[in-house]
Amino acid sequence: MPETVLNTAAANHSAELSFDDFKEIVINDYRVGFESRQASLLGRREVLTGKAKFGIFGDGKEVAQLAMAKAFKKGDWRAGYYRDQTFMFATGMSNLKEFFAQLYANPDIEKDPASGGRQMNCHYATRYVDADGNWTSQTDTMNCSADISTTGGHMPRLLGLAYASKLYRQNKELEYLKQFSINGNEVAFGTIGNGSTSEGLFFEAFNAAGVLQVPMAIAVWDDAYAISVPAKLQTTKEDISEVLRGFQRDEKGNGYEIFKVRGWDYAALCETYERAIKLCREEHVPVLIHVVEMTQPQGHSTSGSHERYKSKERLTWEEEHDCLLQMRKWMIQSAIITTEDIDALEAEAKKHVRNCQKEAWAELESEIKAEIVQVLQLTETILQSSQHRDELQQVITSLQTCVDPGRRDTVAAARKVLRVTVKEPTAARQALVNWLSQENEKNKERFNSKLFTNTPKSPLYVPVIEAQYQEDARLLDGREVLNACFDANFERDKSIVAFGEDVGAIGDVNQGFAGLQSKYSDLRITDTGIREATIIGQGMGLAMRGLRPIAEIQYLDYLLYSITVLSDDVASLSYRTAGGQRAPLIVRTRGHRLEGIWHSGSPLGLILNALRGMHICVPRNMTQAAGMYNTLLRGDEPALVIESLNGYRLKEKLPANVGEFTVPLGKAEIVKHGTDITVVSYGSMLRVVMEAAEELEHLGINMEVIDPQTLYPFDLDNTCGKSLQKTNKLLVIDEDLPGGGSAYILQKIIEAQNGYYLLDAQPKTLSAAEHRPPYGSDGDYFSKPSVDDVIEAVYKMMNEANPGKYPTLF
Ligand SMILES: Cc1ncc(C[n+]2csc(CCOP(=O)(O)OP(=O)(O)O)c2C)c(N)n1
Ligand SMILES: [Mg+2]
C-alpha cells in the first residue's frame, strides 16, 4: 500500500542531534525558504516594472524543497522544472545573485552559470564541462541537468540519469570511471507539476523506471492547478498517486515505493524524504513522492493573475496553507524560535535579497552603460563633421534617455548612425565601424555560440584514418561489417552500451549487434520496452554521466515518437547551457525505402529542422556507417546515424581496421566523376542514382555524383560547389518530400557555397511524392524516385541545355 504521511511528525533525522543543533538547522532552512519567497516577490516586481521580460517562480513550493535538499548528496542529480529555486539555493547549486542574473538575461556565464542568459528564469543547470572540453568530477559536486520549459519533457532524461547509477553499480567493468559514480550510489531526483503528469512522457518514463528498477525519486508538486486548468480536468480521481497505486511494489513484483505528504508540513516532508531516498539510494527502488496541498501565492507566472480562475474559497485556503506560514507557526509552537527572532530574521532576509538583486542588476547595467558611453563618444565625434547633425543628435538623445537599455540599444544606435552617415566616410565613422565589428564578435559569442560543444574533443577533430583492405578481404553482408565494427568498439571502450527494442537477445532486427549480448553481457547490449522517447532519454542521461550510449530507434519512422526529446533536450543542451553541459549520445536508426507507409520514411527535412545541434549522418552503405560510428564514438557531440534499411544484406568488403578507420563528418565524397551535370544524393537513393548513371552513359551523359555523407555538417570543403565549376548544372535527389531535405541541400550549395554563380541552368530537385509510399513494389515505384525517374530528370536537364544533342525523350 502507498505510504501516506499526512500527520505532522518530529523529523527523525534530528534523533542524534541536540535540540540546539536541530533548531539551528530548522531556522537556517526557514531562512533559505523565506529568502527564496522574497526572491519570487521581488522577481515578479522586476518583471512588472520592465527590467525583466517574464517571470515564473517557486513560491508556495519552498518547504518541500528544503526537505528534498536535505536528502540530496554529492554525486546526485536533479532533473526538474521551473519551481525549484528553493532547492537550488538550499543545496548551493545556485544562489540569489545568479537567480537575478538569469532573470535579467545576463549573458555572462560567470553571472548566470546555468544558461548564460539564454534560458527563462528559474531554469537551472550546473556546469560539468570545462573550457577545454574535460568532464569535471561529478562525484565531488551536486549535479543539476539543464532544465527545459516543456513541462514533462525532462522525464526521459531523468530516467537516463537514474539508469546510469544502475549500470555503474552492476557493471564492475565501469569502476575505473570514478569521477562519475561511486558504486552507483547516486539518486536522480525529479520534480514535475501535477498538471504535467498528464503528459505521455511522464507515464512512459514512470513505467520504464519501474521495469528497470533504477534510483529515480520523482516528486510531484501538486498545487491542484496547471495554469488555470484544475485537477479534475487533468487527472483521474484528481490524485496522481492514487492513479499510480498499481505501481506499488508488493509480493507480486518489483515496483515503486509511493509516498504522499503535505507540502506545508516541514517535519513530515523531512521524514518522508529521508526514508524514501534511503531506500532509493541503497536498494535502487524508484520512489514517488506526491506532495499535495501546495499553493501558488502569486499565481502561475507573470503572464496572468490567478484571481481570474480560482474561487475566493480556494484563494483563502491557499493563503492559510501557505507552506512558509505553516512552518513559521510550527517553529514558534515548537519553541524553535520566538516571534521576535523570526521577525528579525525575516527583516534581515528581505534586505539581503534586495541587495543581491541590486548587485545583479548593477553588474549587467554597468557593462551596458560602458558600451553606451563608447557609442555616444564615437557618435559625438562623427557628428562634428556630419551633414546629418539633427538625425545623429536624435540617436544620441534616445540612447541617453533609454530606460533600462540593453545591448540591442547600443548596437541598434551604432547601426543607425552608420546608415545615416553612409555617404560620409570619415575616420570617425570608421572608428564606429570597428567598434561595431568588435561588438558583433562579442555578441555572437554571447548569444549565438555553442550550438555544438566545439571543444578539442569534437568529432570534427577526430583524426581521419582510411579504411584498409587486405588483398583477400572477406566479402560480407553489410550487417556483418557493422557487427564487426560494434564488436571492436565494445572491446576497446568499456563505457559503450547499446540498447533499444530487440537490440539485446536477437542483436537488433537486422542483426548488427548479433552475438554481442552473450559476449559483453546484457548490461551493455540491452533490450528495452517499446518506448522511443525514453530510449532517447535513457541515452541522454547516460551520456551526461560519462557513458557512451548507442540508443537505437528500430525504424526511422518511429523517431517521431522521440523527436520532442531529441529536439527540445538533446539537440539544445550545449546551446542552452552555453557549453556547460553535453550529452554525446549516438542515436542509431535505419530508414529510407523498404515497404509501406511506416517502413519507408526518409523525413530528412523534418529531422534537419528539428535537430540542429546534432550531427546528421546518412551513410550510403554499412562500411561508411561503421566509419561514422568510429568517428562519433571518439568525439563528444550527439549524432543521429540513419542506416539504409535495404542495405544490410548487400555485400561489402570487410576493412582490416573495421573498428579504427574513421569517416570524417562533413566530408562529401565524389562517388562518380563526371563532366556534364552534378547530382547530389545520399543514403539508399545513391544506389538508384548509380544505376541510372550507367544507362545515362549510354545516352551520352556523364554525370558527377556526390555523396555528402553527413547532412549536418554539410560538405565543409565545398565539394559540391566546386563540382559546379565543371558541370554548371545541379540536380539534388532524395527520398524526402519535395521541399524537404533537398531544399536544405539546395540552400547549402546555391547560397552558402555560392553555387548560384556557376549555374547555366535552373537547379532542380527530384524527390518522392508528397504522400508516404504505399505497400508493395509498385507502391515504391510510383512514390519514390526510381531509376527511370532519375534518368529522365537528368536527361531533361541536358535536353533543355542542348536539345540538338539530347532530343526530347517523349
Ligand atoms: C509541453 C508543454 N505544454 C504546455 C506548456 C505551457 N505550460 C507551461 S506551465 C503549464 C502548467 C503546468 O502545470 P503543472 O505541471 O501543474 O505545474 P505548476 O506550474 O502548477 O507547478 C503549462 C500548460 C509547456 N510549457 N510545455
Ligand atoms: Mg500545478
List cofactors, ions and other ligands: thiamine diphosphate, magnesium ion
N-to-C span: 77 Å
Mean of residue pLDDT? 96
Largest sheet: 7 strands, parallel
CA-based shape: globular
Strand order of the largest sheet: 1-8-9-5-4-2-3
Number of helices: 26
Structural class: alpha/beta
Strand content: 5-15%
Ranges where pLDDT stays below 50 over 5 or more residues in a row are: 4-14
Radius of gyration: 30 Å
Descriptive overview:
This protein has 810 residues and is an alpha/beta fold. It is built from 26 helices and 23 strands. The strands form five sheets. Strands 1-8-9-5-4-2-3 form a seven-stranded parallel β-sheet, sandwiched between helices. The chain is globular. The N and C termini lie far apart (77 Å). Mean pLDDT is 96; it is low at 4-14. Thiamine diphosphate is lined by residues 83, 149-151, 193-196, 221, 223, 225-227, 300.
